[in-house]
Amino acid sequence: MAPSIGSEVVASIPDLVCVTGASGHLGTWLVKRLLEKGYRVRATVRDPDDPKKTTVLKNLPEAEGRLQLVKGQLLEEGGFDDAVYGVDGVFHCACPTEFSFEDPYRDCIEPAVRGTVNILKACSKAPTIKRIVFTSSAAAVRFTQLEDIPEQRFDENCWTDVDMCLRDKPHGWPYFVSKTLSELKAFELAKEYKLDLVTILPTLVTGPFLLNKIPNSMADALSLVTGDVFHHNFIRRISYVHIDDIIDAHIFLYETPAAEGRYIGSCVDASITEAAELLKKLFPKIQLPSNFDYVGEIVPHYMDNSKLRKLGFEFKHDLADMYLSGVKCCVEKGLMTYPGESQDQSLTPNVASQNGAESDGLVGNHL
Questions:
Q1: φ/ψ of residue 256, rounded to 5
Q2: Looking at residue 153, what is its pLDDT?
């Protein structure tokens, strides 16, 4: 079967790829899309016998005969050796995420870096691996002094200033630092082990989901819809990408030989005011604040996706698609009503908890 994404691609689809963090929001979609494209997939989860982690994956239409669920222990040395041995490629989505921690270094930063070391070491022992696609985050780009960024346009040459985060401790700083140090460590080890590594840095991932609970990234994106004022500060100026586009981008980067280095996976930049104006058009009955002065200054900035587009990738979904498909998914799963039809649209009881869980690391960020 020939690949369908991109013009410059590998001649034939590999037989077998490994997806780590397969039970997360991005991981489930990635497994689904890979199976649809004809790949055989070895998917790692913490406990293959836990139906909460595996039911969605096992019920995928193409799963029978082509999906293998295996145990993957991200924080144990050697915990991925068996999972990646013999595969042609690896999509590393797993990320240890703990947001109720006493010690940011012990509970967030160190585990993230250690997990990266373990997966890269495992890949170094698997001579069949052609390429690793590593899911990082725009959080590894975005947090630096804006005056240092020409026209406030962030590209792949930008790295989050770890020293600034450690000094100023902005909300969410342990996650920003963990993603930055993990990606830096991944490139360091890839060079040492002579591995072909490409990283992709998603912004706020929106759109439909396969899980039975709303992913954290979608809870942030839909906070205007649900009236969750706490998260409005997160989206006062943010960059979005549709789940379909970011999944296709992962596979595109795996299949395109010319891909190298980092790639920002972002499609739309919007302020909370612009998002609110769009929502009023999409859902005329929605009740929104008359102004957003309470979120503070909205500083324009942009995520530059030109490197990915120049390679031949095309983004297909705009912000309207993201909101419409995300809301539709929530309504169909019984997690909310259409905006304006109920005063009680809170998603809080149904948001997927990632505390203590191995996820794909797609948490809500100030991107």
A1: -100, 110
A2: 87
Model's pTM, two decimal places? 0.90
**Spatial separation of the C-alpha atoms in residues 246 and 216, rounded to whole Å:** 16
Residue 364 within a domain: no
Residue type (1 letter), 257: P
The CATH number linked to 296 is: 3.40.50.720
CA pair distance 112, 183, nearest whole angstrom: 10
Q: Answer yes or no: are the C-beta atoms of 224 and 347 closer than 8 Å.
A: no
HSE-CB at 123 with a 13 A cutoff on CA atoms is 32
Q: Residue 367: inside a domain, yes or no? A: no
Three-class secondary structure of residue 269 per DSSP: strand
Residue 269 structure tokens: 């930049």
Rg over alpha carbons for the chain, rounded to the nearest Å, is 20
Q: Distance between CA atoms of 157 and 141, rounded to whole angstroms?
A: 8
Indicate the DSSP class of residue 109.
I
Half-sphere exposure of 214 (CA within 13 A, CB side): 30
Q: What residues in the chain have per-residue pLDDT under 70?
A: 1-14, 96-100, 146-147, 342-367
- Tell me what pLDDT residue 341 has: 75
Quote the CA–CA distance of 349 and 327 in Å, as a whole number.
16
Q: Number of structural domains, the chain?
A: 1
Please give the Cα distance from 131 to 255 (Å, whole number): 9
Q: What is the pLDDT of residues 331-367, one digit of tens each?
A: 999 999 988 776 454 444 344 433 333 455 444 443 4
193-250 residue pLDDT tens: 999 999 999 999 999 999 999 999 999 999 999 988 988 988 999 999 999 999 999 9
**Burial of 219 from C-beta contacts in 10 A (0-12 / 13-18 / 19+):** buried
| Residue span of the structural domain in which 244 resides | 16-359
